[in-house]
């Protein structure tokens, strides 16, 4: 089989940088990041879309990178945990995770943080969740129940949930 | 590192994690994330039968596939020497002991190629009938010589049967706990590379020194030929306590292919290759006077092991030290089935054992009409009931009292099934927690650098416990300097023998060695100038640990839970939990609180969600992934509060540190089950407390 039948070129913008990759069609976005760009911050907890450890932002929206084929992401903007801090400044959510000890082993943490960054944005846009009392309301107040609901795709086996919710609340209040 | 609260000394000061920035920016590298040149990928192929033999491995077809470098199987794999753990003798024979056992490793240049080839590999089998049926009356049930790690299988004091017959009140019930899977978030992974005869492995484990010894023995190497590195570890909960399949397979494949090889298990493979908590069946009999004074405790625990290695969970051991009693019998039975080998999972023994004991205590309180906290206090022993040994410290009553105060226990109406909030019935429950506070020999080295800074090296492992940070505080105090002056290096077998991060023995053991090394360094440094390579002093606590007096050493705690039960759907929701613990000196309050909350969260998860379901026809778990095996998610976990009572105990180790890794999970499921009874009036003696179980046992309300 000719090589191009199994591999293609894909252009991605990753953390602001243009990347041109020649990838096996079977390569997931997660493996492209981890194996080809050495961005190992995005974690592989299940490779099946069941844990959220691989959560990244694709064109600003959160997605499980293990469920996306890299070659199907042509032209997309990908933000990983490595891209959240700029110029040595931590993102407010990252800082809140440190201050409130929102992690233990750290393996779910990049996914939790990327998810939380997206949660703040989704709430800002007024997107309701399953526990939003008034889905028509323009404002979503990110109380603990909202945060827990919206973060439930990100498992943490160390059981850091209580502190994660505190951290996300703090970041939400800080206007992150 | 930010100091959040100021304290005179560093130990006891809430301190954010040293590796925090690395972990929140993605810079922290775990074992499967080292980008070595020419790295090849090994994908494990596991058995698809319940028992039998491998008849053929279709390696030739696979070797023709793109990128495939090698197919290792029992017919061609390098020979290994038994390191005292038969689960590590991989690809040495054609026998298949259970579903999901390792039958081959496919190595290819890319992960995609290796995965495709592993999936395409045809393995044929001579199948034999398997037996995975765990029952108390299994004909092959036997009495193990000892239970994990070295407890007597049976102990008897007095005549429990006579005491039970004579008793005014008897609770006689059977409790069960299911197979629970550790499911650390980071799947077990190893990156292995040989330089000539020297092997370096980046491995996800709870103790690099212990993994190194297994590799030395397996491959017949000298001590200086192996280095194990484990700087960051994505959780373990016991499943990374000793070497597991990836480190063996990656080391083997790297030697065979002469390339660095990474082997990472899939989530599914973790269900059969890294250990799990055995299911248990526990017959519990308590006898007491009408006032609740216990006269007999009789605890009989059944569990399973595999045919590969005997692992006997110490389920009934908790009943030997928890409550005063005139007569006591604790016994274990074991059956070797065609199942994966169970190993340690957070609080082995105490976690399942406390579910039975602490549920039965609640039933006894109900039967006697005594408040369950009061009943525990009435049965508080002055010495350890079984051994008669003095306790080094025992603050259970203080925990119960403090917890009752903070939880608002005193207003509680003991009657079950009478509180309603819309469609929810509400209840509260309590249970006690305990775990042994042991210490094991460790070594550590402390260096005074010429620039005035200090470096401490100890083969500790930070699996999320905050060990790196806590040890920095300990070292800073021992040296009398600010924590910023000290660099603590861990996770490298070059630093010498040390206890693993397991059995709640890591901090207590490492702290002792680190403190000794620092103290000796100060003496040494006072005597001479610091040369260019610094002054290094090493300490070994082996002799001191051996000389410790015989005492009963344990941590304790009180667990409280409030639940809401929807009697129409059977759904149980935990509304809040409170844990008050006594664990000696708390080194870093910030991370200690997190670790205890983490244990309670896993306890909540065990109470309501977790069970690996074995299918008797295939001999395999039907729910071997995170979609089928549910662990608590954000929405399951409410407010959980943690506190501790002051406790000074210099008999556990000079620093007075008791481990807290296990304590938080112990008793949490019983507190929740007791709360469900208080809500509904129906006992839940089987974990997890699934909706169908609640519905089955609860009379349906006749109003909507
Ligand atoms: S690794 Fe993608 S969801 Fe688990
Ligand atoms: S911090 Fe370990 S899994 Fe979340």
Would you give an account of this structure?
By secondary structure, chain A is of the alpha+beta class. Chain A has five helices and five strands. Chain A folds into two domains: 3-83, Roll (Ubiquitin-like (UB roll)), CATH 3.10.20; 92-172, [2Fe-2S]-binding domain (DNA polymerase, domain 1, Orthogonal Bundle), CATH 1.10.150.120. In chain A, a hairpin with a 2-residue loop joins β3 (55-58) and β4 (61-64). In chain A, α2 (92-99) packs across α5. The longest helix of chain A has 16 residues, at 109-124. The N and C termini of chain A lie far apart (51 Å). The mean pLDDT of chain A is 95. Chain B is of the alpha+beta class. Chain B folds into three domains: 34-129 and 184-266, Aldehyde oxidase/xanthine dehydrogenase, molybdopterin binding domain (Aldehyde Oxidoreductase, domain 4, 2-Layer Sandwich), CATH 3.30.365; 146-180 and 276-437 and 551-696, Aldehyde oxidase/xanthine dehydrogenase, molybdopterin binding domain (Aldehyde Oxidoreductase, domain 4), CATH 3.30.365.10; 440-545, Aldehyde oxidase/xanthine dehydrogenase, molybdopterin binding domain (Aldehyde Oxidoreductase, domain 4). Chain B contains 16 helices and 28 strands. In chain B, the strands form seven sheets. In chain B, strands 3-5-1-14-11-12-13 form a seven-stranded mixed beta sheet, sandwiched between helices. In chain B, α8 runs parallel beside α15 and α14 packs across α15. The site of one FE2/S2 (inorganic) cluster has 12 residues of chain A, from loops. Residues 44-47, 49-54, 64, 66 of chain A line the site of one FE2/S2 (inorganic) cluster (FES).
Task: Present the secondary structure layout.
The complex is a heterodimer of chains A (176) and B (704).
Chain A: E1 7-14, E2 17-24, H1 29-36, E3 55-58, E4 61-64, E5 77-79, H2 92-99, H3 109-124, H4 144-150, H5 161-173
Parallel strand pairs in A: 1-5
Antiparallel strand pairs in A: 1-2, 3-4, 3-5
Chain B: H1 20-25, E1 40-46, E2 52-57, H2 59-63, E3 68-73, E4 95-96, E5 102-108, H3 111-120, E6 123-127, E7 146-147, E8 151-152, E9 155-157, H4 160-166, E10 169-177, E11 189-195, E12 198-203, H5 208-219, E13 226-229, H6 245-257, E14 261-264, H7 270-273, E15 280-288, E16 294-306, E17 327-337, H8 350-368, H9 372-378, H10 396-407, E18 420-421, E19 424-436, E20 443-448, E21 454-457, H11 467-479, E22 486-489, H12 506-527, E23 535-540, H13 542-546, E24 554-566, E25 572-582, H14 589-608, E26 614-615, E27 620-621, E28 639-644, H15 668-680, H16 691-697
Helix pairs in contact in B: 8-15, 11-12, 14-15
The structure holds FE2/S2 (inorganic) cluster (2 copies).
One FE2/S2 (inorganic) cluster (FES) sits between chains A (103-109, 156-158, 160) and B (185, 235, 464).
């Amino acid at each position: 089989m000719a090589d191009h039948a199994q591999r293609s070129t894909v252009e991605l913008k990753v953390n602001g940088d243009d990347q041109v990759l020649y990838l096996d069609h079977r390569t997931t976005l997660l493996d492209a990041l981890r194996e080809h760009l050495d961005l190992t911050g995005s974690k592989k907890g299940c490779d099946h879309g069941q844990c959220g450890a691989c959560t990244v932002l694709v064109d600003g929206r959160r997605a499980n990178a293990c469920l996306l084929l890299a070659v199907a992401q042509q032209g997309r903007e990908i933000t990983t945990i490595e891209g959240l801090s700029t110029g040595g400044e931590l993102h407010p959510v990252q800082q809140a995770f440190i201050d409130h000890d929102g992690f233990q082993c750290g393996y779910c943490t990049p996914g939790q943080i990327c998810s939380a960054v997206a949660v703040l944005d989704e709430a800002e846009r007024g997107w309701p969740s399953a526990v939003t009392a008034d889905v028509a309301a323009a404002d979503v107040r990110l109380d603990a129940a909202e945060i827990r609901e919206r973060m439930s795709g990100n498992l943490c086996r160390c059981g850091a949930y209580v502190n994660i919710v505190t951290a996300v609340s703090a970041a939400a209040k800080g206007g992150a | 590192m930010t100091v959040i609260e100021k304290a005179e000394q560093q130990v006891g000061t809430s301190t954010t994690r040293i590796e925090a920035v690395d972990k929140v920016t993605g810079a922290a590298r775990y074992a499967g994330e080292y980008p070595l040149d020419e790295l090849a990928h090994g994908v494990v192929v596991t058995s698809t039968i319940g028992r039998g033999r491998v008849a053929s491995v279709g390696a030739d077809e696979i070797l023709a596939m793109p990128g495939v470098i090698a197919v290792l199987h029992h017919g061609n794999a390098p020979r290994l020497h038994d390191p005292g753990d038969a689960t590590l003798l991989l690809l040495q024979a054609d026998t298949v002991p259970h579903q999901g056992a390792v039958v081959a490793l496919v190595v290819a240049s890319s992960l995609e190629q290796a995965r495709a080839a592993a999936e395409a590999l045809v393995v044929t089998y001579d199948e034999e009938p398997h037996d995975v049926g765990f029952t108390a009356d299994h004909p092959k049930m036997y009495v193990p010589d000892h239970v994990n790690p070295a407890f007597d299988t049976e102990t008897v004091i007095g005549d429990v049967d006579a005491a039970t017959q004579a008793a005014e009140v008897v609770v006689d019930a059977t409790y069960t706990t299911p197979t629970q899977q550790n499911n650390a978030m980071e799947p077990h992974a190893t990156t292995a590379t040989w330089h000539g005869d020297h092997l370096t492995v980046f491995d996800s484990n709870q103790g690099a020194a212990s993994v190194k010894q297994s590799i030395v023995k397996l491959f017949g190497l000298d001590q200086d030929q192996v280095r194990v590195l484990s700087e960051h570890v994505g959780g373990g909960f016991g499943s990374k306590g000793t070497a597991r399949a990836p480190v063996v397979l990656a080391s083997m494949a790297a030697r065979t292919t002469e390339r660095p090889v990474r082997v990472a298990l899939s989530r599914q493979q973790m269900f059969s290759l890294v250990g799990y908590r055995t299911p248990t069946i526990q017959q519990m009999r308590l006898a007491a006077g009408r006032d609740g004074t216990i006269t007999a405790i009789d605890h009989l625990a059944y569990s399973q092991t595999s045919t590969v290695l005997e692992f006997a969970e110490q389920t009934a051991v908790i009943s030997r030290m928890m409550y005063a009693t005139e007569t006591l019998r604790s016994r274990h039975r074991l059956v070797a089935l065609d199942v994966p080998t169970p190993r340690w999972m957070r609080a082995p023994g105490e976690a399942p054992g406390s579910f039975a004991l602490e549920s039965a205590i609640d039933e006894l309180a109900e039967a006697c009409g005594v408040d369950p906290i009061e009943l525990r206090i009435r049965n508080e022993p002055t010495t350890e009931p079984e051994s008669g040994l003095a306790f080094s410290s025992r603050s259970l009553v203080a925990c119960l009292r403090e917890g009752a105060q903070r939880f608002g226990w005193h207003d509680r109406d003991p009657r079950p099934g009478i509180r309603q909030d819309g469609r929810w019935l509400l209840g509260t429950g309590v249970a006690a927690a305990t775990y042994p506070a042991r210490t094991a020999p460790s070594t550590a080295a402390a260096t005074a650098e010429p620039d005035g800074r200090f470096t401490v090296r100890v083969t500790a492992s930070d699996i999320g416990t905050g060990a790196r940070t806590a040890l920095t505080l300990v070292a800073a105090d021992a040296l009398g300097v600010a924590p910023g002056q000290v660099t603590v290096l861990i996770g490298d077998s070059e630093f010498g023998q040390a206890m693993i991060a397991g059995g709640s023995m890591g901090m207590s053991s490492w702290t002792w060695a680190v403190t000794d090394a620092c103290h000796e360094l100060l003496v040494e440094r006072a005597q001479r100038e610091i040369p260019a390579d610094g002054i290094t002093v090493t300490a070994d606590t082996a002799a001191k640990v051996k000389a410790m007096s015989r005492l009963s050493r344990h941590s304790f705690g009180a667990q409280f839970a409030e639940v809401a039960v929807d009697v129409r759907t059977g759904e149980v929701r935990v509304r809040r939990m409170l844990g008050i613990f006594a664990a000696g000196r708390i080194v870093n309050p910030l991370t200690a609180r997190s670790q205890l909350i983490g244990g309670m969260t896993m306890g909540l998860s065990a109470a309501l969600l977790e069970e690996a379901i074995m299918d008797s026809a295939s001999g395999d778990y039907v729910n071997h992934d995170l979609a089928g095996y549910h662990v608590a998610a954000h929405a399951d976990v409410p407010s959980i509060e943690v506190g501790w009572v002051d406790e000074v105990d210099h008999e556990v180790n000079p620093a007075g540190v008791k481990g807290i890794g296990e304590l938080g999970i112990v008793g949490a499921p019983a507190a929740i089950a007791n709360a469900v009874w208080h809500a509904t009036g129906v006992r839940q003696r089987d974990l997890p407390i699934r909706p169908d179980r609640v519905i089955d046992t609860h009379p349906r309300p006749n109003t909507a």
